[in-house]
Amino acid sequence: MDGLSPELADARAEIVRLRQQLDRQTRALDNLPIGVVLVDPRGAVVGRNAMASGFLGAGHGGVLVDEAVGRMIDLARRNGRASTDVRLYGPPLRVVTVTALSLTDGGVLALIDDVSERERLEAVRTDFVANISHELKTPVGAIALLAETIVDEDDQDVVRRLAGRLADEAHRAASSIDDLLELSRIERGGAAGRERVTALSVLRDAVVRSLAAAEQCDIRLDLDEPDPAVAVWGDRRQLVSAISNLIDNAVKYSEPASSVQLSAASDDGSVSFVVTDHGIGIPTRDLDRIFERFYRVDRARSRDTGGTGLGLAIVNHVAVNHDGRVSVRSVEGEGSTFILSIPEAP
Ligand code: ADP
């Protein structure tokens, strides 16, 4: 073989094999979603994967991460292990955890992990728990106070009035719990029960669900029935819940004796469900935030109308579960139009 002695040929084959193995390991390291820096026993950097190079080369943030890596490597040499968080104030804020571990040969392995998303989710979770506690504390506190007052009250008229308020507060707490359970079911379940659902049946079922509330507020629901062939692939219960939440809002934020228009139409591969009211409208500055859980433009009005601040979060999640989207157009004092677009069933 190439006139080489068998020993040299074997050595060359071994070198080729080792090089291939090294290439494979380098590729694997480069594909890791965390940065890896390897330092030899003398303290010299002998390896760095692609992610680590990306972190360390990133401008001012890179300098801070580089400094933390050096510091953790020194500490790990002495203590076996060291870890720190580096906060890079963006925007967006990024949080990077640098961990260094000493190796048996006296070298050190440093790991650089971008934990920004984990931190963000943790902050969302903590906020959510704080918000739920606040939402439930208000009616539950009122229930306790009203019950205590009733115990000491002899006047039957006053007792009746207080009992009515007590029932209202209990209903308010129950609505919040219902919406929380609905949101959690929708968030957890994706769009599990997918089937072919006609737009007409979704609108009709949603109208049935919201009719009593509309009649109570003297609001007419005008359903412009779509072609029965217009359909989406989706979870019927979620879609009805989304449209019904949009109708409930349209009713809540309109004056009595007005009307709400409902329609659906197929448009460029999507079905757009449209709910239009002629109510108070939404200030432009709030439009970006109304789909957040518990966000309200007017806390007092939402509370007076039995709002939980979760309706539009539910609608948004139904859209996400169906690869669709929800949008809004609104003019203060004139009204709002919400459009839920869901991919059309083939
Ligand atoms: P709520 O239970 O308070 O109605 P939502 O999540 O359903 O909570 O809506 C968030 C906020 O968006 C409401 O508090 C209200 O300020 C505003 N909003 C939603 N729908 C409408 C609408 N059709 N007209 C005017 N404001 C609306």
In short:
Helices cover 51% and strands 23% of the residues. It is built from nine helices and twelve strands.
Written account of the structure:
With 346 residues, the protein is α+β, with helices and mostly antiparallel strands. It has helices at 6-30, 50-56, 59-79, 116-151, 156-189, 199-216, 236-252, 299-304, 311-321; strands at 35-39, 45-48, 81-88, 94-102, 108-114, 194-198, 220-223, 231-235, 259-267, 270-276, 325-331, 335-343. The strands form 3 sheets. A 5-stranded antiparallel sheet has the order 2-1-5-4-3. A hairpin with a 3-residue loop joins strand 11 and strand 12. Helix 7 (236-252) runs antiparallel to helix 9. The longest helix is centred in the middle third of the chain and has 36 residues, at 116-151. The protein starts with 5 loop residues before the first helix and ends with a strand. 28% of the residues are buried. It binds adenosine-5'-diphosphate (ADP).
Percent of residues in beta strands = 15-25%
Ligand identities: adenosine-5'-diphosphate
Q: Which sequence of strands runs across the widest sheet? A: 2-1-5-4-3
Number of helices: 9
Spans where pLDDT lies below 50 across 5 or more residues: none
Main sheet record: 5 strands, antiparallel
Distance between the termini: 63 Å
3D shape: elongated
Kindly report the average pLDDT value: 91
**Percentage of helical residues?**
40-55%
What is the number of E strands?
12
Query: Which value, in Å, is the CA radius of gyration?
Result: 30 Å
Specify the structural class: alpha+beta
